């Protein structure tokens, strides 16, 4: 299986790996083996890439290893979901891997959001917008405004965080109740033992 193909990029030519080759590398890694390092890349860099492919597959399934995400038209809402995770404290690398995108693309989104807010994540159309006749215009139901959409996503993330915190608190309460019950049981056992000893005397 030929591992890679070559594509033009800024500053020269870059190496891309085929979907089948990535799957083979992930499979070997899970067996505790390393695939042979292809020519044109260092062993360390290549093994780092294999680890990333494994983490991507764990997070999103094997389809994430296909190249569709590189040319995908991301919506502002999708971009903001990943930007919000970075702003909440997750690392760029962790979020990029789970999304199946390059860290550099995520950096761009975060930078645009910090500069222009949610509007900075909205894709800008190139050229003049096409003119539509009144006959062709469709009545579209009112969508959420960017600020409303942003607030909705932020609240959703906040809700998930609170639910996780509540689950932790519930576990702590359950453990505390178990400890109290065990202590009470031990105390009763000791008191009954003492009363038996007194009766004997």
Which SSEs are present, and which pair or pack?
Elements: E1 4-9, E2 12-17, H1 19-30, H2 43-60, H3 76-87, H4 92-99, H5 103-116, H6 146-200
Helix pairs in contact: 1-2, 3-5, 3-6, 4-5
Essential attributes:
6 helices; 59% helix; 2 strands; single chain; two-stranded antiparallel sheet; 201 residues; flat; mainly alpha
What fraction strand? Answer: 5-15%
* Broad shape: flat
Query: What is the alpha-carbon Rg in Å?
Result: 28 Å
Overall residue-averaged pLDDT value:
75
Task: Give the helices and strands as they follow along the chain.
Answer: EEHHHHHH
Which structural class matches the secondary elements?
Answer: mainly alpha
- Could you name the ranges where pLDDT drops below 50 across 5 or more consecutive residues? 6-14
Number of helices: 6
Helix content: 55-70%
Q: How many strand segments?
A: 2
């Amino acid at each position: 299986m030929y591992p890679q193909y070559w594509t033009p990029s800024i500053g020269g030519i870059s190496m891309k790996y085929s979907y089948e080759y990535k799957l083979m590398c992930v499979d070997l890694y899970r067996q505790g083996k390393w695939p042979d390092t292809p020519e044109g890349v260092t062993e360390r860099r290549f093994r780092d890439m294999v680890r990333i492919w494994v983490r991507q597959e764990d997070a999103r399934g094997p389809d994430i290893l296909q190249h569709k995400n590189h040319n995908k038209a991301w919506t502002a809402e999708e971009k903001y979901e990943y930007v919000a995770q970075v702003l909440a404290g997750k690392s760029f690398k962790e979020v990029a891997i789970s999304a199946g995108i390059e860290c550099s693309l995520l950096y761009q989104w975060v930078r645009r959001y910090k500069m222009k807010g949610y509007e900075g994540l909205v894709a800008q159309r190139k050229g003049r917008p096409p003119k539509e006749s009144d006959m062709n215009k469709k009545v579209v139901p009112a969508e959420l405004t960017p600020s409303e959409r942003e607030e909705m996503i932020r609240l959703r993330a906040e809700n998930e965080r609170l639910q996780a915190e509540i689950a932790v608190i519930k576990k702590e309460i359950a453990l505390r109740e178990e400890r109290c019950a065990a202590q009470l049981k031990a105390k009763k056992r000791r008191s009954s033992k003492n009363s038996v000893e007194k009766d004997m005397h």
